[in-house]
Write a structure and sequence with these properties.
The chain has about 400 residues and is an alpha/beta fold. The protein is built from 19 helices and 13 strands. It is globular and about 70 Å long.
């Protein structure tokens, strides 16, 4: 067993940085960590996309912080739960995925997580798939497990209440998702689960099940969400996620497109910049003593460095400066003025003559051949806001400046 680090200051930072809340309370978990006992800690990742994104990376980085303290880390790939589809925050039933689809999606997950976690050495993180135990549960097992929960517990969730009000269906398998995730904790016999605060319900179900079956306390640590002042999250559902399989230049550009209000929380959640520096950044922004663009460039550099290394991060920054900050786009660039301040990306490509048909426009977006202000567009449903003017780019050669009346 690796040596457990019980340094009080290090533990304090791990339990505070980016943390929303700890159940049953922080004091109990801190006492455990100070005792020198090695804890088993996990976070689960459903393969609903072929790449992890920055929100996932926040959780993986928190796992890495506990790993550095000497604790046993499990990186769980939800190949079974991914087929069900987590209903959390969803206004409609998720499309169910096949086993082949979730396994294909998760192909690069371990490699991407290795940017933060150590999967080799004395205290290497373990990779597990929850189909290993969930595939083996029979109907009798399901009945016995479900007896630990009530319909009232499940139906009270906000997204289900909204669907009921709007007359939209709630499928029975969506009720079973929290139960499946809860059983992961039992099968792994963990001491602590880490997740975003939007996952609190599912994680607390695991805590209840651990008490019922193992007669054991399971700690739950929820992380703050990466969101701007309006509450808009950076993620797949919003169409503004940073995926870890993106090239360094694209990641850098995507971060630079974020709202300025996200800078402080992004430094706290997405980087390992010392918290003293993060506090100074918050104060500088509050007192308007610094240009937010400069801080965002540092943020973009730190995030890109964590994923691709310092050399590629430096290249991405130089490319951004040359191409956008110094306006090194073609001197002769077509301008187009639209009457709309918001427009779907497909319509935008058609109206700017960057695509000849809707099918071509969709193909360009799906092939990641379209950028807005240097940021790759990865959804055909993206709504583009034209605040003052934007640069729309197709491939490497075609640029159009678009303004709004």
């Amino acid at each position: 067993m690796s040596k457990i680090d019980t340094n009080k200051e290090k533990i304090k930072e791990v339990l505070e940085r980016g943390v929303e809340i700890i159940y049953p309370n922080r004091e109990s978990l801190e006492k455990k960590l100070l005792s020198g006992e090695q804890l088993t800690i996990y976070a689960g990742f459903d393969p609903s996309a072929p790449s992890l994104h920055i929100g996932n990376a926040i959780l993986v980085n928190k796992l890495a912080q506990f790993q550095k303290l000497g604790h046993k880390i499990i990186f769980l790939i939800g190949d079974f739960t991914g087929m069900i589809g987590d209903p959390t925050d969803k206004k409609a039933t998720r499309k169910q995925l096949s086993r082949e689809e979730v396994l294909a999606n998760s192909r690069l997950y371990t490699k991407q997580a290795s940017c933060f976690l150590d999967f080799e050495g004395e205290n290497k993180a373990e990779v597990k798939y929850n189909s290993a135990w969930l595939d083996n549960l029979n109907f009798r097992d399901l009945i016995e497990l479900s007896a630990n929960f009530t319909v009232q517990q499940m139906i009270q969730r906000d997204m289900f209440q909204e669907r009921l009000r709007e007359g939209r269906p709630i499928h029975l398998h969506e009720f079973l998702y929290p139960l499946a995730q809860a059983y992961d904790s039992v099968a792994l016999n963990v001491d602590l689960e880490i997740g975003g605060n939007d996952q609190m319900f599912n994680m607390m179900c695991g805590r209840d099940l651990m008490k019922a079956i193992k007669k054991k306390e399971k700690f739950v640590l929820t992380m703050k969400l990466l969101a701007d002042d309006s509450g808009k999250k950076m993620g797949k559902s919003e169409g503004n996620a940073v995926f870890l399989d993106q090239e360094a230049r694209d990641i850098y550009g995507r971060v630079m497109s974020w709202n300025d209000s996200i800078i402080p929380i992004a430094f706290e959640l997405c980087t390992n910049v010392p918290m003293e520096d993060v506090k100074k950044i918050k104060q500088q922004l509050k007192e308007e003593k610094v240009n937010p663009r400069d801080l965002k460039m540092k943020l973009a550099f730190e995030i890109t460095k964590a994923i691709h290394g310092e050399k590629e991060a430096q290249d991405a920054q130089e490319y951004f400066v040359k191409t956008f900050q110094q306006k090194r786009i073609p001197k002769e660039i077509t301008e187009k003025t639209l009457k709309k301040s918001e427009i779907n990306i497909i319509d935008l490509l058609l109206e700017t003559d960057l695509a000849e048909s809707r099918s071509e426009a969709k193909r360009l977006v799906k092939q990641r051949g379209v950028k807005i202000n240097g940021d790759i567009v990865d959804s055909i449903d993206k709504i583009v806001k034209i605040d003052d003017s934007i640069i729309v780019q197709r491939g490497k050669k075609f640029f159009i400046k678009v303004k709004s009346k």
